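Take a look at my tokenised protein here and describe the backbone shape.
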Amino acid sequence: MSLSFLACQDNESTKSEFTGNETTYALQAGSTYDISGTVTFKEKVGGSTVVIINLTGTEGNLQHPVHLHLGDLSTDGAAVAALLNPVLGKTGKSETTLTKLEDETTITYNQIIALEACVKIHLAEAGPDRDIILAGGNIGSSKGSISGRQDISVCKSE
């Protein structure tokens, strides 16, 4: 009879897919709904960026559209830079891997966090509820602070 012993060792292939660079921004309520949370940008090895949204106060089976807009929250008709995966109402979460903007321009983590931009989460994709912003926040070089929901502009209609 022969016995064999195998040992496990750490393998370099188990290294993280992330570089360790990440930036988190606050998202505040954008309407009468009591919704808030954070958006986190995490750099992946290879250059892409994972955008993670965590909201509190959402519920149900609705999916809430998420837009990355150029300009700060108060910019009227701010152009959509990227469409992100919707926030699921029952979890309040969304995760998107971002490599390109809507115009097909490649974008890196460092470029995203240097943008003058904002993130807005809408109540619905279409109809009158499209103009209801559940939550939003300035990101990157958008330094302007907002003092309340009235400072969050409606998005550019497409």
